[in-house]
Amino acid sequence: MFAVISDIHSNLEALTVVLADIKKRGIKTIYCLGDVIGYGPNPKECLDLVIEKTKWCVMGNHDYATLYEPTNFNYGAEQASFWTREVLETERQMLSRYKWWRFLGKLPMRRTLKAKLGTNTAIIDFLHASPRKPINEYIFPDDVYTNPVKVRVLFEQVKHICFIGHTHLPGVFLDEPDFYPPDELNDVYPIVDDEKAIINIGSVGQPRDKDNRASYVYVDGNEVNFVRLQYDFETTAKKIMATEQLDNFQAERLKEGR
Ligand SMILES: [Fe+2]
To answer: Is 250 exposed, middle or buried (0-12, 13-18, 19+ CB in 10 A)?
Structure first.
């Protein structure tokens, strides 16, 4: 069994609840699809937890923005990334500083795993955004109707299974192309040998599918299980409001899941 988390966005309350749930299920292996930081108020604590608890992590666009520079960010997201950088740079503890920047600087764009899942063998890619542009490209559910050619082209680059985050909208893309949100799948997608899938696992710290609960998946046998968990978003929102450099919209959206 393993769990996959993504898009934590410096939300410690959401991350804590998700990690506790993973532990309760007896899952020891956790992979992370990036965007550990950005938007939220607790970058240091979230980096510490991800470094400690996950087996590895790949690079998200917000991790990239803090490490290098924000690209195509709106004003609020850009301000948050500059604030995050300042927080990490002004930390007094040299060892912590070193640990965080080293972690960010070494994040790969993609990881690939060959795994035996029940009776099936799967080749699984883990990346933040899309198989073509692993850090920045968005694959939206609507693309299957508005831009099916794009989705088909992306599937050409998928060997079998690809876990992604980035849009903060959980669900499964098939190569028809089709998109199935978790509730249409009863929260379970079975990985089979002859079906390609791009699986968006949703966001731990900033869900955007009008459901404000934290999202992650765990894989048991060949089944990908989508999980949603309530967490104390009021506390996260208050911390955002109390930080001048963080836009209040980042607090409001947590309540509404958008
Ligand atoms: Fe994100």
So the answer is: buried
pLDDT tens per residue, range 184-226: 999 999 999 999 999 999 999 999 999 999 999 999 999 999 9
Whole-number Å distance, alpha carbon 165 to ligand 1 midpoint, is 7
Element (H, E) at 30: strand 29-32
Ligand 1 centre distance from Cα of residue 79 (Å): 15
Q: How far apart are CA 122 and CA 211, in angstroms?
A: 30
Separation of CA 59 and ligand 1 centre (Å):
11
Q: At what angle are helices 75-89 and 43-53 packed, to 10 degrees?
A: 70
DSSP class of 60 = -
Distance 51 CA to ligand 1 centre (A): 18
DSSP string, 176-188: TTEEE-GGGGTTE
